[in-house]
Specification:
Blueprint lengths: L9 E6 L2 H12 L7 E5 L10 H11 L5 E5 L2 H12 L3 H4 L2 E3 L4 H13 L4 H10 L28 E6 L8 H12 L6 E2 L2 E2 L3 H6 L7 E6 L5 H12 L6
Parallel strand pairs: 1-2, 1-3, 3-4
Antiparallel strand pairs: 5-8, 6-7, 6-8
Length: 240
């Protein structure tokens, strides 16, 4: 496992369940191996609940200077996190944000954004966009598998098709690799009509081994991004 990078925003999972928080760290680490991911679950004596001391320690461990995003499962967990923030020094408090986001979806999205090197505000936005409007697996005016209507920009559209060859298709880890690669390009790229930079939407497609996938961009400068994603898919996302 790679060492956590000091220039990455950290992510803290606050849950009433110790096992739930630790499980989410385990899940997110598959997609964000260089991010400081910290679990703060349960009470100090192992019961269901939250712990001020655990949350405070997790924030300190997650923030190596680039800041940390905190996600919580229930209202009392938010209260515990807010109390912990009050006891931080002014400099660190300015680098720590509590995201208004679902714990699982928001935590995964935040972890992937942090792994991509996004700054604190962008990681918070990634978390808070998870599960909201536009994250339903389809985009406005189109459904999965439906060809977009032709328009004046059709002539500039770049499109390639590739068949998924890795055993489990676009499950969490390869989907995260795809999103990280897409996010490294400024142009907008789609996967079967879905924004390639939206992890939850990509995973929501449920693409399995053998599925034919269209990688496309309406941006005339998007060819390099399309080709890079095609190459990643053809490589089996490093799973072969």
């Amino acid at each position: 496992m790679p060492e956590p990078a000091a220039d990455r925003v950290g992510v803290v999972f606050v849950s009433h369940s110790e096992r739930l928080a630790e499980g989410l760290v385990e899940l997110a680490r598959q997609m964000a191996p260089t991010v400081r991911l910290e679990a703060a679950g349960g009470t100090d004596d192992g019961r269901i609940g939250t712990s001020f001391d655990k949350v405070t320690a997790a924030i300190s461990a997650a923030d190596a200077g680039a800041g940390a995003v905190v996600l919580c499962d229930l209202g009392s967990a938010i209260m515990t996190a807010e109390t912990a923030l009050e006891f931080l020094d002014d400099d660190q408090r300015a680098r720590v944000r509590i995201a208004s986001a679902p714990l699982v979806e928001g935590g995964v999205a935040a972890s992937v954004a942090a792994e991509s090197g996004d700054a604190l505000d962008a990681v918070v936005r990634a978390a808070e966009s998870a599960g909201g409007p536009g994250e339903t697996g389809t985009e406005a005016g189109a459904t999965a598998g439906e060809e977009p209507a032709a328009d004046e920009g059709e002539a500039t559209r770049i499109s390639r098709r590739v068949t998924l060859t890795n055993a489990d298709g676009l499950h969490a880890r390869p989907a995260a690799e795809l999103v990280k690669l897409a996010s490294s390009f400024p142009q907008r790229v789609t996967v079967n009509g879905i924004d390639a930079k939206s992890l939850l939407s990509i995973m929501g497609l449920g693409l399995t081994k053998g599925a034919e996938v269209e990688i496309a961009s309406d941006d005339p400068e998007g060819a390099a991004a399309v080709e890079a994603i095609v190459a990643l898919a053809e490589s089996g996302f490093g799973e072969h």
